[in-house]
Amino acid sequence: ASKAGGRGRFSFFSSQLLRVAEDKRLLEEDLRDALARDEIELAYQPIVDARTNRATGVEALIRWNHPVRGPISPTIFVPIAEEADLIRPLGEWVLRKACQDAASWPGKLRVAVNVSPVQFTHDSLPKIVLSALAASGLAPERLELEITEGVFLDDCPQTDAMFSTLKQIGVRLALDDFGTGYSSLGYLKKAPFDKIKIDQSFVRAATLPGSRNRAIIAAIVALADALEMETTAEGIESLDQLQLVRNLGATHVQGYVYSEAVRSEVLSRKIENGEWILPPSGPTRQRSD
Ligand code: C2E
Ligand code: MG
Ligand code: MG
Ligand code: MG
């Protein structure tokens, strides 16, 4: 009986694995046509200056509205796109669309675009960036590329060259999800980042009594300050968290306390109405300017 039970368990697990793999394959197939079928769009979340409480930019976040399954999180389909070599066409579309949208907004908000390590290690990226800027007329300094520590995984010489080419173009560079990847700090020395984004996992528990995350956030801010980089604290959901990361010196904040990501037209309206200056019942400004 125990033998049969063992086999039963085995086939239970293996059929589950099969189902997961099959599901991934189906999603990959659907993803191939998603752009052409107009199922992909961008949403924009404000990034706010911690001192003035004003949005200085937005982050473009990709959205896939699957015709049958509904919205699918990029945390699920971006890795699939990376494996299936679909991230480069998707990423190019994101860059072009984000630049085009940003050029249409009133004012001079920056737009931050997430760039996969797969895109970053490909020679074509500078040409695509230049072409997206030229087609939209967006000034290079209004475009920020968000890169994760994943680009440093294989220490290839092209990575350094890519950084300097992008800096020559004049776009800004941000290191995303800082602290979640590989703890080597060596790359901070050589890569010309304008900003470090402190991962939301550090913010999440930081307001709890005795949390070590406060010390970690303070250390990241000190490091960034010394390297003359800005810091965005990600995933700020409450006014307590907002106050805390401000006190710890983060230069920028981003999170649901201000707004979720919204569509480009909604963003334009919000800018015109002067919204996104203060969160609901937000704290008073720390500096009178
Ligand atoms: P990320 O670049 O770190 O983006 C921040 C994520 O945190 C977004 O999730 C955003 O909606 C979410 N977020 C913002 N504020 C809060 C908050 O207060 N609380 C919580 N719990 N979450 C918050 P989203 O849009 O689901 O994207 C997830 C990840 O998918 C992104 O993480 C990024 O790594 C990737 N991604 C999104 N768009 C793109 C893209 O166009 N290209 C590439 N390569 N990756 C993308
Ligand atoms: Mg990002
Ligand atoms: Mg992040
Ligand atoms: Mg993330």
UniProtKB/TrEMBL annotation:
Taxonomically, which superkingdom? Bacteria
Domain EAL stretches: 24-275
Q: What is this protein called?
A: EAL domain-containing protein
Lineage start: Bacteria, Pseudomonadati, Pseudomonadota, Alphaproteobacteria, Sphingomonadales
